[in-house]
Amino acid sequence: MMSEFNNFLNDAFPYALGYYHGRALGEFENGTYENMTDRHKQLFKLGYAVGVEDYCEMDILI
After folding, report:
1. Long-range contacts of range 24-28, CB-CB < 8 Å, 24 or more positions apart?
2. Is residue 3 exposed (0-12), middle (13-18) or buried (19+ Cβ within 10 Å)?
3. What pTM was estimated for this model as a whole?
4. 40-to-2, 9, 24 alpha-carbon distances in Å
5. How confident is the model at residue 59 (pLDDT cuts 50, 70, 90)?
6. What is the DSSP letter of 31?
7. 3-class secondary-structure state, position 34
């Protein structure tokens, strides 16, 4: 059970980091995901896209 939770956290972090970069920074930071696995790179890019979308949708209105 604990290993499943650790796997979830390992996958959640790259997504959350990508979301942060998309929402707060609007750009990839150099060297952010160069050492990530292909799966984590994909999760980072997915989080980034959602972060940019949220920025455009929510933050521009304020």
Report:
1. 24/51, 26/52, 26/55
2. exposed
3. 0.78
4. 20, 11, 20
5. low
6. T
7. coil
